[in-house]
Amino acid sequence: MSQLSPIDPLLLSRDLAEMEFHALASFNEGGSGVFWSEAGGPSPWEMHPDCDEMLQILEGEVEVEVLPLDGGSSQVTKVGEGEYIVVPKGCWHRQTMLQRSVEHYLTPGRTLHSLVPDPRVVEQANKMQSHIRNGFGSVRAYVYGDLQTLRMVEAAFAPVEIERNEMGEKAFHIDLRIGDSMLVLEVSDPPYPEGFPGSIYVYVEDTDAAYKLALAAGASSVAEPEDKPYGERQGGVKDHFGNVWWISTLIDPGLAETK
Question: What whole-number distance in Å separates Cα of residue 191 and Cα of residue 242?
């Protein structure tokens, strides 16, 4: 059996720099320790997915803000010298030092951190989107085309290529990001026999510039750019494969409002 020597965490804190953590014990990916800080805060949010956490105030006074798991309003508790608080497992929390304070913590598990205003919102969004590839929306345009289609899209819309998979000789599945949206291009030369033309609506910063770039890349005109009664300037082109690309820029938000 091991024998423990007496430890005075408050005395240990005297030799620490501000916010320097002195570990007293380590276990279960966490541990116990002591630190001190001058008045200030709040600290970044933290959460312990595997365990409760005990915070004991050895000196000073601390305000502990806890976000309930049920999504309710935050709960703020003042913890004074000689008092402690137990933060439940899975609850995001942060601290504000109301004066110079020394704190002893017991955290027998992992610690996660967050700088967003309410980490629960991000957690919920991640849960809702867990079935969707990262960075992709719920709906994507899926367009067939040939190599000239790809060249026209690259010239007119300056997409960011996210992924390209070779499906055969001169045949590619390409994921592109245009602005905040994702587009799939099934490109082959000759075109896939099951492929058929579609119609795509793309917002750009400058309709006229994108329209001219598309024509220069081999597209044909469907409609020259003009101001529309719904507050957009719009033009249209048809690529070599037959897809129609409507190109638009919002120019009058007032006219675009839903009546």
Answer: 11
Strands (E), 71-204: 75-80, 84-87, 93-97, 101-107, 112-114, 141-145, 160-168, 171-178, 181-188, 199-203
Q: Which domains are seen in the chain, by residue range?
A: 9-116 (2.60.120.10), 141-256 (3.10.180.10)
Residues 6+ apart with CB under 8 A from 42: 65, 94, 95, 96
In this structure, what DSSP letter does residue 192 have? P
Collapsing DSSP to helix, strand or coil, 150 comes out as helix
Output 235 or 125, whichever has higher pLDDT. 235
Tens digit of pLDDT for each residue in 134-151?
667 778 899 999 999 999
**Phi, then psi, of 201 in degrees rounded to 5:** -115, 120
Using alpha carbons, select from 110, 113, 111, 104 the residue that is nearest to residue 23: 104
Q: How many CA atoms lie within 13 A of 168 on its CB side?
A: 8
- Helices 207-216 and 147-157: angle between axes, nearest 10 degrees: 150
